[in-house]
Amino acid sequence: MKLKDKLKQWLPASWVRRWRRACRRKSWQRNWSRTDYAPLWLGREISPEIVEAVADGWFPAGQPALDIGCGQGEVVAWLADRSFPSLGVDIAPAAIKRARSRYGEIPGRQEYLALDICARTPSDHQFAILIDRGCFHQIPDIDLPSYVQNILSVSVPDARLLLFVKAFRAGIPIGDPAEWKHQTARVRTAFAGAFTIIRSDQIHLDAWNGQRAEQALPGLVFWLERVPVRETTDRSRLMTEAQTAPLTRE
Q: How far apart are the C-alpha atoms of 133 and 136, rounded to whole Å?
């Protein structure tokens, strides 16, 4: 029996969850601490969908932005240069150290913070813009309710979220309708009562935008808007739904 299976039997679920999070933090810290760390998605340009959201106003001009899983910080720096006060959070302190070294910090305008979004939130912040270019699909199903609740708690009532997820892997053809439906159902269920999907599109997450077939990282991008909450009681109910909704498997 594997250690993780033994832990499930011997320890309370909350302890197992914390242990898994600690292992995840250690793994990402080890990766970002390596000088030769070069995953296929590292070094990609600012996603066209982010550029479009700024250009057409879907991201409200000048509103605060949160980059979840910011890595080496390029999205935060790009948004700050365009007058969006931006904060990047990442589970690995080594990633935050790299981001600060590459782009620097300007208090209130361009900042970076080591933080596990499944465990806590940036204090005293509210965001109209949220971006996740690869954090969501790394999170185990058991931690997704905490992820959703935490980003919901720091989002303004009309917040917008751009969510990038991996898809069409393991031999599944790019654009496969069943895979698209499956990933959409997973996102919709995870964010139930918190954010609603406006539209989606297929993308590539690698640094070459799919031009190198052997190194391509296909995926999907989702445009989501926060569900309107008119009364405090409704908000509490919706947050509870986001925490407890089971993930759909098709």
A: 8
CA 184 to chain centre: 15
Q: Which two tokens stand for residue 34?
A: 């390596």
Say how far apart CA 95 and CA 101 lie, in whole Å: 10
Tokens describing residue 208: 């070459």
Strands (E), the chain: 65-68, 86-90, 110-114, 127-132, 155-166, 195-204, 218-226
Question: How far is residue 174's CA from residue 204's CA, in Å, rounded to a whole number?
Answer: 10
State both tokens at 81: 């240069």
| 234 band by pLDDT with thresholds 50, 70 and 90 | low
Tell me the pLDDT tens digit for each residue of 165-209: 999 999 999 999 999 999 999 999 999 999 999 999 999 999 999
DSSP string, 193-217: TTEEEEEEEEEE-STTTT-SGGG--
Q: Where are the beta strands (DSSP E) in 79-168?
A: 86-90, 110-114, 127-132, 155-166
Question: Sign of the C-alpha dihedral, residues 185, 230, 86, 115?
Answer: negative
Query: What is the C-alpha to C-alpha distance for residues 205 and 218, in angstroms, rounded to an integer?
Result: 6
What structural domains does the chain harbor?
Answer: 3-244 (3.40.50.150)
